[in-house]
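Render Ribosomal protein S5 domain 2-like protein in 3D.
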Amino acid sequence: MTPNEDLTDELSALTSIYPPSTLPTTSSLPPPSILHQLLDGRYLLHLPSTPPLTLHLTIPPTYPTDPPIILDPPTTEALKTAHDVVKEVFTPGCVIFFDLIETLVERLRSSSTPASTSSAADSTVTTVSADEDLELEDKDTEGQDATDSPATPTATALLRSVDAPPWHISAPVIEKKSTFVGRCVQVATASEARNFLADIKADRRLAKATHNISAYRICVGRGEAMRVVQDCDDDGETAAGGRLGKMLELMGVAELRGTGVLVVVSRWYGGVKLGPARFGIINTVARECMLEAGLWDPEQGGKRKKKR
């Protein structure tokens, strides 16, 4: 894969993980994407942080062999941190932006919140067993279990699988012989989500999918008293569950409803590796499935809205 293809696939994955509606902004319109190119060839990176921070970058033609360059001088603590994080997370030959974004956002959050105090408006987040393997580096686990998977089932068979609970099931998406199907359902507790996942494993056709990537997010209570319970599972597709869970968080899934959503994306590997682009497909299938089911409203979901 050429460096340009690496960047194209990375941009696609980033846009799926961080939809424009989840990005904070100081203007009346959200940015077109988390990372987009200007007419003069520079790039703007809009960090999903509060307060909003935008970095001006150049990305050399040799990327990811060589790192992106931040054009903003380190005149503030936030910009100094950004320059430091690029040096820390960059590994020649590996794409960088997911690790850069997540590491920098966490550093900025830590520096803006003193350890001895916390805002009363902050929600308490409880992670049941969150997937911490969020590296964007492709560890070449794609299709690892493909030899154990049966031939891709027909669309009709896919839609008939797991009739209960009342899943909303997306139409199959086929990309280079791999088939992706999303399904989502409303849940009230972590135990209920785990029981529904057990139903997936009990279904012979779905159990034999190459991967069943899942994530759930449950909001108990509202406002300042809201508690969030969340978890995710790669099912062998390295880092896919973590990315899916991160997307649910950024979209603010279930926050307005005071309940929870479980989403599963099943993939039948077709023999052709998709590289980082597969993460974008997985998240897009999941997002569209929740939108079709009415379990997420892009006009209301997403907790990082512009502050007036």
